[in-house]
Specification:
By secondary structure, this protein is mainly alpha-helical. It is built from one helix and no strands. The longest helix has 29 residues, at 12-40. It is elongated, with a radius of gyration of 19 Å. 0% of the residues are buried.
Length: 41
């Protein structure tokens, strides 16, 4: 019995865009948390 891989490679362009969006979201979140921290100190 031959196993076929289930995981397909995602579209490179789509993957890159998703990662960029995720990075932007995370950077915004980090900045938000840093601002809160600075206000607390």
């Amino acid at each position: 019995m031959k196993l076929t891989p289930i995981i397909r490679k995602p579209e490179p362009v789509e993957e890159t865009d998703n990662l960029k969006d995720r990075v932007i979201e995370l950077e915004a979140k980090v900045k938000e948390l840093e601002d809160k921290l600075n206000q607390t100190l």
